[in-house]
Write a structure and sequence with these properties.
This protein is of the alpha/beta class and 578 residues long. The chain has 20 helices and 14 strands. It has 3 domains: 273 residues, Rossmann fold (3-Layer(aba) Sandwich); 30 residues, no CATH class; 160 residues, Glucose Oxidase, domain 1, CATH 3.50.30. α5 runs parallel beside α6 and α11 crosses α13.
Length: 578
């Protein structure tokens, strides 16, 4: 590559730091040279930030050191200068009380790290559930050229000669253990074989869903979502992403030129076709508010309502992400639903979606079924409303029991997750298979952070009787790897005084997914009296970021972002620091 070609033709943002002959430019250049960078690194070559969420406390992202080296090689090959920087890593498996509490904090870390540093474009290294939305939210608010490279899913789990999936089979085997159907030794053996390689959950949980969402939004290169973490093609895609961001800087291809209402519609349709996580609802709503795109909770239902589920992958099905990739991945799914997509949207590849998927093929019709014979007739997320959730609640029909999608039952109420854990296995608990389990005070403000506790374990006595699903209602989230007839994200939440706070033991609740209804059969007069007696619960975490979060977080129907973070603030060069 010639020196002329290696330099950008445009005046780069980083030149505000490195250009010129004055004292300030001397300071910026000279200290950077302690990396061993040659002088001509700062004469007009694009500076590419590599935003790395590596952490040994985030097992999904623990292989990112080596992946970052491939990205750097791609950047260098294209004539850019790669500079890696860390941001807060959000490990779903270890971080308490919930990684969702810190998604917005990490997004601020990303946004300010990009804006405050001499960066012309950024590669976002994402993997575990909340790292994907946090990084993209921060990048959207800056609106510099940005591209996502995911870490990829683990290899399929293996246990007693069978395939097992992270999360999904944990919930299933845990219930089997509580029911006495398997031994503790069997449960321990499954633990040994569940996580066999680097990477995030290999089910269609939130990590895989969000990787698919950024690909379908156009913010990642084709095939990004599904390549296994340990497949060499993941490293090749990282290299290619490094090369690609340099050209994106030259073309000034920013998120605002990619993200629009049509791209969000594409993501909703793809979510339905893959049987994606309910958590995707919150994150896409947050993206839209950062990007200032007209897209809301009702759009999730309207845009995705007629989309069949084509992908037979856990938790909705039986296969895993490794199988999904070898069957063709997200491009193959989009090729089968192309009539439901806007194919003219721009993507980070520099091409339209139509160009990206024109050669995509399906290699395994059982994993990615034909649209004429879908795996399940109804994919996507159903948005429910009624006097129990006036601002909305969600359910994933493809992961629910069909016979429970229209159901009325008596409420069994738990005021907190601690109350639930203390009483759920009490043999004297007044509960039947027809009951509706109700969990309060686990929403954005109430937990705080809206933890993944909505897929409540069933009462032990019912498990022992053979019951494997019940209607469950809460203001919480659930893991994207989970399943069941679980109503989530009730808004407003109980801790904010939403109707969920007023539910009492024995109240009748109706769920009607087809009718999009979630109703509490209690008179308005009675609810008014209950509200008069309601006492707002105290936050379990006081001070610091937790107080900022509780005082500023929006409700689930708005994406649970901090209200003051909505919108784009751009990446104008801040004033000099010396």
């Amino acid at each position: 590559m010639t020196e002329e070609k290696s330099k950008s033709k445009k005046v780069l943002r980083s030149q505000a730091w490195f250009g010129g002959k004055d004292k300030d430019a001397f300071i910026h250049r000279s200290w950077m040279k302690n990396h061993g960078l040659p002088t001509d690194s700062f004469d007009g070559r694009p500076i590419i930030g590599i935003c790395n969420t590596y952490s040994e406390l985030t097992p999904c992202n623990a292989h990112f050191r080596s992946l970052a080296e491939k990205i750097k090689a791609g950047v260098l090959q294209a004539g850019g200068i790669p500079l890696e920087f860390p941001v807060m890593s959000l490990g779903e498996t270890n971080l308490r009380p919930t990684a969702m509490l810190y998604r917005n904090l990490a997004s601020m870390d990303v946004e300010e790290s990009i804006r405050g540093n001499p960066i012309d474009g950024v590669v976002l290294m994402t993997g575990c559930d909340k790292t994907t939305p946090a990084l993209l939210m921060g990048a959207i608010s800056c609106d510099l050229p940005s591209i996502v490279i995911s870490g990829g899913p683990m290899l399929n789990g293996r246990y007693q000669g069978k395939t097992v999936g992270s999360g999904t089979d944990v919930w299933r085997l845990s219930e089997e253990l509580r029911a006495g159907a398997i031994s503790q030794e069997d449960f321990d053996a499954a633990e040994e074989g569940m996580s066999r390689s680097a990477g995030h959950c290999m089910t269609m949980g939130t990590a895989s869903t969000m990787a698919a969402m950024v690909e379908s939004l156009g913010m990642a290169l084709p095939t990004n979502a599904a390549i296994p973490a340990t497949d060499a093609r993941r490293e090749r895609l990282a290299w290619e992403s490094g090369r690609r961001i340099v050209d994106m800087v030259e073309k000034d291809l920013t998120p605002s030129k990619i993200l629009n209402r049509s791209s969000f519609q594409n993501a909703v349709v793809v979510n339905g076709a893959i049987g994606g996580s309910t958590n995707g609802v919150l994150h896409l709503l947050a993206f839209a508010r950062r990007a200032e795109v007209d897209f809301d909770l009702e759009d999730w239902d309207e845009m995705g309502r007629e989309v069949p589920c084509l992908v037979d992958v856990m938790p909705s099905g039986k296969y895993l992400m490794e199988d999904f990739y070898y069957a063709g991945g997200v491009p193959a799914v989009m090729s089968r639903i192309r009539d439901k997509l806007n194919l003219e949207v721009m993507t980070v590849s520099g091409q339209t979606l139509k160009d990206n998927i024109k050669d995509a093929k399906v290699w395994h019709d059982e994993v990615i079924t034909p649209i004429e014979k879908p795996f399940k007739p109804h994919g996507g997320i159903a948005v429910l409303k009624g006097n129990l959730a006036p601002l909305g609640a969600v359910i994933k029909p493809s992961a629910a029991s069909p016979e429970l999608l229209k159901h009325t039952g008596k409420a069994v109420v738990f005021d907190s997750i601690e109350d639930f854990k203390a009483r759920i296995d009490d043999p004297d608990l007044d509960v039947t298979a027809d009951s509706v389990l109700v969990l309060k005070n686990c929403g954005p403000r109430g937990y705080p952070g809206m933890a993944e506790v909505g897929n409540m374990a069933l009462p032990k006595k019912l498990l022992e009787a053979g019951v494997r699903d019940m209607v469950r209602v809460s203001d919480a989230r659930m893991s994207g790897t989970a399943y069941g007839t679980v109503v989530l994200h009730c808004a407003p939440e109980a801790a904010a005084g939403g109707p969920l706070a007023l539910v009492q033991e024995g109240d009748q609740i109706t769920l009607d997914v087809e009718g999009r209804e979630l109703s509490l059969h209690v008179s308005e007069e009675e609810l008014t009296e209950r509200r008069r007696q309601w006492i707002e619960p105290k936050c379990s975490m006081i001070g610091g970021y937790q107080s900022l979060y509780v005082n500023s977080v929006t409700q689930a129907d708005q994406g649970c972002d901090l209200e003051f973070l909505h919108g784009k603030r751009g990446a104008a060069v801040p004033r000099e620091s010396h």
